[in-house]
Amino acid sequence: MNIGDLLFQLIFFILIIGIVAAVFYAVRSLVIREPDNSKSIERKLDRIIELHEKENKD
């Protein structure tokens, strides 16, 4: 086995580990979402609706 084959195998081994880590991180970030973020958006939308209704009354 020469140095070229060893480097080729090492690079692809690192690449495969990187792809697996990226997939794991993506799945983990999709599964573990922050519920506060959606609640925050809902609160902001409620506030916008309240202000819009108040504007329409005047």
Polypeptide structure, described:
- By secondary structure, the chain is mainly α.
- It has one domain.
- Helices cover about 90% and strands about 0% of the residues.
- The chain is built from two helices and no strands.
- The radius of gyration is 25 Å and the shape is rod-shaped.
- It starts with a helix and ends with a helix.
| Helix-strand makeup class | mainly alpha
Termini Cα gap: 83 Å
Principal-axes geometry comes out as: rod-shaped
Mean pLDDT: 87
As residue ranges, the low-confidence spans are none
The DSSP helix count reads 2
Element order: H for helix, E for strand: HH
For the report, how would you describe the main beta sheet?
none
Strand content is: under 5%
Give the % helix: over 70%
Pfam family, one: DUF4083
Protein name: DUF4083 domain-containing protein
Keywords: Membrane, Transmembrane, Transmembrane helix
Organism: Mesobacillus boroniphilus JCM 21738
Give the arrangement of secondary structure elements.
Elements: H1 3-31, H2 35-57
Organism: Mesobacillus boroniphilus JCM 21738
InterPro entries: DUF4083
Protein name: DUF4083 domain-containing protein
